Amino acid sequence: MAAVSDRLPAFPWDKLEPYKKTAAAHPDGIVDLSVGTPVDPVPQLIRQALIDAADSPGYPTVWGTEALRDAITGWLRGRLGASAAGHRNVLPVVGSKELVAWLPTQLGLGAGDQVAYPRLAYPTYEVGARLCGAEPVVYDDPTTDLDPARVKLLWLNSPSNPTGKVIPKEDLVRIVAWAREHGILLFSDECYLELGWEAEPVSVLHDDVCGGSYEGIVAVHSLSKRSNLAGYRAAFVAGDADVLGELLEIRKHGGMMTPAPVQAATVAALGDDRHVAEQRERYAARRAALRAALEAHGFRVEHSEASLYLWVTRDEPCWDTVAHLADLGILVAPGDFYGEAGARFVRVAFTATDERVEAAVKRLG
Fold this sequence. Notes:
Helix content: 25-40%
Low-confidence stretches: none
Number of helices: 13
Strand order of the largest sheet: 2-8-7-6-5-3-4
Largest sheet: 7 strands, mixed
Structural class: alpha/beta
Order of helices and strands: HEHHEHEHEHEHEHEEHHHEEHEEEH
Distance between the termini: 55 Å
Strand content: 15-25%
Shape: globular
């Protein structure tokens, strides 16, 4: 039996281990800014909702409870400007990474099909294409760089991981129109949408972008970053009812169910804006401190107008930068993890605690 893993690239984070050991040897310990994992507490109202739903002996449904669908559609209308969103336009998923990795397979894509994603991108877009045997292709501008006869799935990512770049509304309108013209299914990864700093991210589901119709478009959203719920695997997709109906049928057969307590926690999280604002304030302060320290140390920041990362360079190979910072006890992600175009950049997450961010600032000073 052929190993499916042979289709996949080497797991990039394994390459970072030697530098992690170097950083960990610092007398004051490592400052790990390599992975954008939340470190702040899960808000109490969300934990309480999880506890209250802990007595859940029966199977949850793949489509989720009516309360969950109400919470998602209410958030879509109120936060994203998706005024036509209804229950058939939403589907909970078991974390957004699972969805990204298995979506091409669940859509029935395979040899001869192309899955397109940005030239600098989250590596799981490529993994999803390779898992089903499709061809991964990259673009700078999908409307000019891709063959519309071959692309079956087009990924957008705004705000971007790793760069923090935001796609302007007028470009979203143009890309959505192009995808519809050519019958290309468009999925927009918007997991960092609530973390805009110097730009206001807009969803493809906004009425001004899609014209109030979700035909051919789906948005992906996660509560991992906005609500510190990475450990809960709480996420959902929203958009084209026909596409989501097909995914629902497939996922029912596959048993891809969000646990009932997590569904209840998601309802609580989407119904509260206060904890989101508080978390944004924490991240804003950490971002400002790290940006100032990095620039004073000789780094140039590019894009980074949104998301949880600073995309920075010293105009040298990214692994030289990784080694330099590891010697200071600071671990960052090399830019080539996200594509060859990142070979002279590193991604710096500001998801460490205030104490660790302060330590990094001192070491860079």
